[in-house]
Write a structure and sequence with these properties.
The complex is a heterodimer of chains A (about 475) and B (about 475). Chain A is built from ten helices and 21 strands. Chain A has about 475 residues and is α+β, with helices and mostly antiparallel strands. In chain A, the strands form four sheets. In chain A, strands 4, 5, 6, 7, 8, 9, 10, 11, 18 and 19 form a ten-stranded antiparallel beta sheet that branches. In chain A, strands 1-21-20-3-2 form a five-stranded antiparallel beta sheet. In chain A, α5 runs antiparallel to α8, α7 packs across α10 and α8 runs antiparallel to α9. Chain A is elongated, with a radius of gyration of 41 Å. Chain A starts with 7 loop residues before the first helix and ends with a helix. Chain B has three domains: about 160 residues, no CATH class; about 160 residues; about 100 residues. In chain B, the strands form four sheets. Chain B has a two-stranded antiparallel ribbon with strand order 1-6. A two-stranded antiparallel sheet of chain B has the order 2-3. A two-stranded antiparallel sheet of chain B has the order 4-5. In chain B, α5 crosses α7 and α12 packs parallel to α14. The two termini of chain B are about 45 Å apart. In chain B, about 45% of the residues are buried. The chains are: A alpha+beta (about 475), B mainly alpha (about 475). At the A-B interface, α2, β7, β10, β19 and α9 of A face α12 and α13 of B.
Chain lengths: ~475, ~475
């Protein structure tokens, strides 16, 4: 009945901080996450595939409940937020007690504690002094450093180990909050996008996931990119040489590859793809002068670039078809691969006027035209390649990594460290006997701990026996001397 | 040699019989394997090492099972020795693989199984040494043996790594995953043993085993073809890979008759479950006897199904419903169906062992309290490993894809596993859950692990598709 008389805020607090609420939220999170893996999710799946998988009515319901994008839905985010709140409240509720354990170790047991502690024994001793000293030696033999509690002749012993283990649960929960906090920061302020660059190309715009573009305050230029293959032809390595330009000045340069990004101003550029653009990158030709056949020279043509052959003549690439096929009277390209390249050159000569001529790499590699001062012979070509860069900005990731490390530490503390405490207090038992009260407590693993406690008691008893034997010897010596 | 062993051991049915028999078998098999290897001129190859490990693990399995049934202590000593030796050869095989491939063996399902078996053997030895739970091998070593058999069937050549997989962090991630999953497997075995010691009724185990078998065969039944066949992924024997019909669509072949047969097995494993419910609802004891008989028949049918599956799928070409022509398939193309079948047979065997030898098992196992604490302790090892595994995976994903968390199915299920075990720990620590409820929680946790490991790869393919 008493609980019903509590004030409403108190009851809300109690509910939010209870373990039952936490477990309920945990179960709900599990169910929601599982649902998110079974139902096709929006940003990853194409709209057509969604329509194929679900009927329009079902899809409408799923969309209405945001079940097609569970992990970004308001209700999933609220679930996580409630879970965070539960962790915070539960910690606040329990922390003061645990902090007392930690900050003010209980060194001097009172009479009530002496009788109430489950694990304790009473060993008869001859004198306070000798009893405590024997216990101290036993403590030290087992690798513990006992503290003297109290002053003068009347002191007792206290030893403990791994006191910090008391805080383990809080460290773990704090780390969880750090990770979730980092995730929230990234969800709000972070972004991910894509940038495709061809050789020597530069850009400051990235295509974001949601289809919009974002302009960066600096420019990235691609100075080279390539792919290395295994013997069987599968890709082994992709790389790109990138340069960062700010106000036209080069400020950073790096060769990136998969797993090795370029980082600049918190933005990271990842190698994520590499492929042919379908455009030619460069063509190597031999130009033979008609006037002077001996005077032939090699030239390299890039798209959109004029190459001057002498003071009078220039040549440029007019058209390029990588995989030529004649379909009726139409020129088409069958693929993006240079299987049957056709090259059209535009020659501009002051003396002879403008001419265009075709070169077919596979079957007519030599082009001759009466109106051109040069003949051209095809040597080879290189296709243009683009490098695909994944761009991401995650300002919260450092909180996430810090949280991960902290969680590792916290779990270590929680599972592998036990706060153990030992007391040795000389007291008079009810029947007027002088005894050494030895007690111990462990924060967990009590069954195993009992064994350790028994060992300590055995050690103390042995020390006391040795003591008595030594005393007897001293007494005997004194008697002989007398 | 074998005959002599039989002749010698027959008149004396003592505790030595099985040990001697198994040792002679091991010596015989090793000797023939050695002769074969010498003939082929290659002695220390990974295949040979794995074969030796298989022989030793098999011997350990037989001895551990003998120990589980009879409780003769000598068996467990011999089994330990066999496990140790098997572990050593397994280590050599892993090392050899690492040396040949130039990267730690975690990049394909073959290599992962290799590492998993290694971890399982290591954990078995550890638990036996440290906690003196000698019977643990009765559960773990059969798993190890079956995994090594499975390894022999999978494509084993060293494949080049695609760029995204060339990362130390990936190796850390996968080794942590293997360790964590092995710890979860051990905690599952301990929780099961706890339930035996906690006097959970045998028929409850019957229902649970039948439910597991049912889920396996329902999973396989999703591949049922209307023509009565079973749809399997086609396999390119030359390229040693799956055949793709279009982008992201695998070419499927239909193995005739197999579909009907599997339906029959599905019905056979359903019968004991139906009988169990009927028996418990109407309180008829004789129905339970019939349920157990039906279970035995179902187990036999499963063995036949496994053999039929292996025989049909190993060789031969089959038509496809997608395109004209005949295509080959291979056991390597259906590792999960194979794993499900083998796992089903294994679970059935364990149940029959319990049914027939429960009193012996109870005598052999540690006390319920010890098992309860041990289950908690193994989860105490598994949970931090699970945490670190997720963290390492996130770090690797961040370096490769630029995002540490993208909610892909594998990630999400790893998180779900983590949450389930976190729930277990909270209930145990703050609510003082002990005994049966905690054991059920541990079992659910392992079921989730299994789903994360097999189910997600099989049913929900995401970024982890190549794993």
């Amino acid at each position: 009945m008493a609980s019903q008389h509590r004030s409403i805020p108190r009851r809300i607090w109690k509910t939010l901080s209870s373990v039952a609420t936490g477990i309920t939220l945990l179960i709900l999170t599990v169910i929601a996450s599982a649902a998110g893996t079974f139902i096709l999710q929006r940003p990853l799946t194409d709209p057509e595939q969604m329509l194929k998988a679900y009927s329009p009515a079902t899809l409408r319901w799923l969309d209405a409940g945001q079940l097609t994008d569970v992990f970004h839905s308001w209700w999933f985010v609220s679930l996580l937020a409630l879970l965070c709140l539960n962790i915070v409240f539960a910690s606040l509720e329990r922390f003061p007690t645990v902090w007392r354990y930690f900050s003010r170790p209980y060194r001097r047991p009172d009479a009530h504690f002496l009788t109430g502690l489950p694990l304790h024994v009473e060993i008869p001793v001859r004198s306070t002094r000798s009893g405590v000293e024997a216990a101290e030696r036993a403590f030290r033999r087992l690798g513990m450093k006992p503290q003297h509690v109290g002053s003068g002749e009347e002191f007792s012993l206290y030893a403990e180990r791994h006191r910090f283990a008391r805080l383990a649960a809080y460290v773990v929960h704090l780390s969880l909050l750090l990770i979730l906090g980092g995730g929230i920061v990234d969800a709000i302020w972070g972004y991910r996008g894509y940038m495709a660059l061809t050789l020597d190309d530069k850009s400051n715009a990235i295509d974001l996931r949601d289809g919009t573009k974002k302009t960066l305050p600096f420019t990235v230029r691609c100075d080279g990119a390539g792919q290395e293959n295994y013997a069987d032809g599968s890709p082994r390595r992709w790389w790109s040489r990138l340069a960062v330009l700010e106000d036209g000045r080069e400020v950073k340069r790096k060769e990136i590859e998969v797993n090795e990004p370029l980082v600049y101003r918190g933005l990271r550029f990842f190698q994520s793809g590499y492929g042919s653009t379908g455009q030619v990158g460069s063509i190597r030709l031999l130009a033979v002068s008609k006037k002077d056949p001996a005077n032939s020279h090699e030239l390299v043509l890039h798209p959109g670039e004029n190459v001057s052959l002498d003071g009078d003549t220039e040549v440029r690439l007019a058209a390029f078809v990588p995989d030529l096929v004649i379909n009726g009277n139409q020129i088409e390209s069958r693929s993006d691969q240079p299987n049957n390249p056709a090259i059209q050159l535009a020659i501009r000569s002051k003396a002879a006027g403008d001419t265009r001529l075709w070169l077919f790499a596979n079957f007519q590699a030599f082009a001759h035209s009466n109106s051109s001062p040069y003949d051209f012979k095809y040597k080879d070509l290189a296709m243009g390649y683009f490098t695909g860069l994944q761009v991401s900005y995650e300002p919260g990731q450092w909180a996430v990594w810090a949280g991960c490390i902290l969680m590792g530490i916290g779990l270590m503390m929680a599972f592998y460290f036990v706060h153990i405490r030992y007391w040795a207090v000389p007291v008079n038992d009810g029947r007027g006997r002088l005894v050494l009260w030895v007690g111990a407590a462990a924060s967990k693993n009590r069954e195993q701990f009992e064994e350790r406690f028994r060992r300590l008691v055995r050690e103390i008893e042995q020390e006391l026996k040795a003591n008595t034997a030594a005393e007897r010897r001293v007494k005997a010596a004194a008697l002989v001397g007398a | 040699m074998m005959e002599r062993a039989k002749a010698e051991s027959h008149p004396v049915p003592s505790g030595n019989m099985l040990t001697v028999l198994v040792s002679l078998c091991v010596v015989f098999l090793l000797f023939t394997a050695f002769l074969g290897a010498v003939k082929r001129g290659e002695l220390f190859t990974e295949q040979n090492l794995l074969y030796v490990a298989l022989i030793l693990y098999g011997a350990a399995t037989v001895l551990y099972l003998g120990f589980g049934v009879t409780g003769i202590h000598r068996y467990v000593q011999a089994a330990s020795l066999a496990t140790w030796l098997g572990f050593l050869t397994n280590t050599l095989a892993v090392g050899h693989r690492w040396y040949i491939a130039g990267h730690p063996p975690f990049s394909s399902i073959y290599e992962m199984l290799l590492s998993f078996v290694w971890t399982l053997a290591a954990l078995t030895i550890f638990v036996e040494r440290r906690y003196h739970v000698q019977v643990i091998g009765t559960v773990t070593m059969p798993i190890a043996t079956l995994s090594v058999i499975l390894i022999q069937l999978l494509p084993s050549e060293v494949r080049p790594l695609v760029p995204a997989l060339q990362s130390t962090w990936l190796h850390i991630h996968v080794s942590l995953a293997m360790l964590a999953y092995a710890a979860c497997a051990v905690s599952f075995a301990l929780a099961m043993m706890f339930l035996i010691q906690d006097r959970l009724r045998t028929e409850t185990f019957l229902a649970a085993t039948s439910a597991f078998l049912l889920s396996v065969y329902i999973g396989i039944a999703t591949r049922f073809d209307p023509s009565g066949g079973l749809r399997l992924i086609a396999w390119d024997a030359q390229g040693k890979q799956e055949i793709f019909f279009a982008e992201k669509t695998r070419l499927m072949v239909v193995v005739p008759e197999l579909g009907w047969f599997f339906f029959l097995v599905l019905a056979a494993v359903l019968v004991p479950l139906v009988l169990y419910f009927w028996a418990t609802m109407n309180r008829i004891g004789s129905a339970l006897t019939w349920a157990n008989r039906a279970f035995f028949v179902g187990a036999l049918l499963q063995v036949v199904a496994l053999i039929a599956f292996i025989l049909r799928v190993r060789e031969g070409v089959y038509p496809s419903s997608q395109v004209e022509g005949l295509f080959a398939t291979n056991l390597s193309a259906s590792p999960f169906i194979l794993a499900g079948l083998v796992g089903g047979v294994f679970a059935s065997m364990l149940y029959l062992l319990l049914l027939w030898r429960r009193s012996d098992l109870e005598r052999m196992l540690p006390s319920a309290d010890t098992l309860d604490v041990l289950t908690y302790k193994t989860i105490g090892i598994g949970f931090p490993l699970l945490t670190l595994m997720i963290a390492a995976g996130a770090y690797w994903a961040n370096r490769t894809w630029g995002s540490y968390w993208s909610w892909d199915p594998k990630e999400t299920w790893a998180l779900i596993t983590w949450l389930v075990y976190a729930g277990y720990l909270h209930m145990r620590i703050t609510r003082g859950w002990r005994g049966r409820r905690a054991a059920y929680f541990a079992i659910i946790g392992f079921a989730v692990v299994l789903f994360t490991f097999f189910g997600v790869t099989y049913l929900l393919r995401g970024l982890h598709a190549y794993a």
